[in-house]
Amino acid sequence: MDKKLLSLTLLTALILIVGCAEEAQETSSASPFLGGTKGIVAEFQDMGIRNERTGQNEIYEGETFPIEILVWNKGEDDVEPSNLLVSLMGINLPDFDNITGENDPNVEEGALSNIAKIERISEFNPEGGEIPLNFIESDADGANYTINLTGSSYNVNLFASVVYNYTTYVAVPKLCYNGDPANTDICVVDEEKDVFSSAAPIQVKKAEEKRAGSGIIAVEFDVENVGSGKVTKQGEGFDNRYDQFEFKMPDATEAANWACTSGGNTDWGRLDKSGKAKIRCKRNTQIQKNDAVYTREFGLEIKYKYKDIIQDSVRILKS
């Protein structure tokens, strides 16, 4: 008798567990994005013969060497023409011959932009677009270091800043529009919501819906710079004191019913020292208790200019 009772209890528990799992599976939301934490990725190509033992690029004095950077778009936002700028850093450009722009007063020396769109990753293009940027004048074979070596070798430590405009697309698939706290049949307001971000270095890590008064709802987003780069508003310069960004709701009609702020600023915000910020969107139209209860997708776009620094080196050996 005890064994039968135990078996019945275990069977009932198993049914409940399976039922709950199925219910959770039915109510969870699928991401509309591929997802990821990268935007533009750039890398110096070999600038000489790679020493297998040290991994160092090496050339001999008097030899020229290529300077090419390969750029990939590993995020989910297209980079339109001229929205990427890669600039050589860390070297005194007049010490080198044949670097692009040295003979053209209308072109910034050692800086190149994209002349074509760099496509985002997608279901049909999972690797994303890529472009090569060649920093050598078209009539030259490579860069030439013009300073005589005083020792047996000299290391050229080459850096590049990679600056580009980008957008993170954010979706909360099921925001609850409910003016009656006692009505929990369709959805509940006061809880954390599923939130998804497109592949990009700025991510939304959490979204929480709350009541902000009688019939008023609000949603708070936790924003984070998950990359290692600097962030500023598009069209503005970078500031060593802080990072900043802009945001908006893509649905202009629905946006008229909301006010979005970050740290008291409307439509823009600053990241703290840990690279984090909050965006709070509050609906300014009251939902009545007898209004229809429903869920609806809430969209947000976070726009910014991002800067990464990459580095490589080539060792020049005495002839």
Characterize the structure shown.
It is a single chain. The protein is elongated and about 85 Å long. A hairpin with a 6-residue loop joins strand 2 and strand 3 (57-60). The protein is built from 2 helices and 21 strands. The protein folds into 2 domains: 40-165 and 307-317, Immunoglobulin-like (Sandwich); 166-305. With 319 residues, it is mainly β. The model is unreliable at 20-26 (pLDDT under 50). The chain has helices at residues 2-27, 252-255, and strands at 40-44, 49-50, 57-60, 68-73, 84-89, 96-97, 111-113, 130-134, 144-145, 153-177, 191-193, 196-197, 202-211, 217-225, 230-232, 243-248, 258-262, 265-266, 268-271, 276-283, 294-317. The strands form 4 sheets. Strands 2, 3, 5, 7, 10, 12, 15, 16, 19 and 21 form a 10-stranded mixed sheet that branches. A 6-stranded antiparallel sheet has the order 11-13-14-20-17-18, with no helix packed on it.
Brief digest:
With 319 residues, the chain is mainly beta.
Radius of gyration: 27 Å
What's the helical proportion of residues? Answer: under 10%
Q: Would you tell me the structural class of the helices and strands? A: mainly beta
- State the end-to-end distance: 94 Å
DSSP strand tally: 21
Whole-number mean pLDDT? 92
> Beta fraction of the residues?
35-45%
| Number of separate domains | 2
Biggest sheet layout: 10 strands, mixed
Number of helices: 2
Which regions are unreliable across 5 or more consecutive residues at pLDDT < 50?
Answer: 20-26
Principal-axis shape equals: elongated
Instruction: Tell me the series of helices and strands, N- to C-terminal.
Output: HEEEEEEEEEEEEEEEEHEEEEE
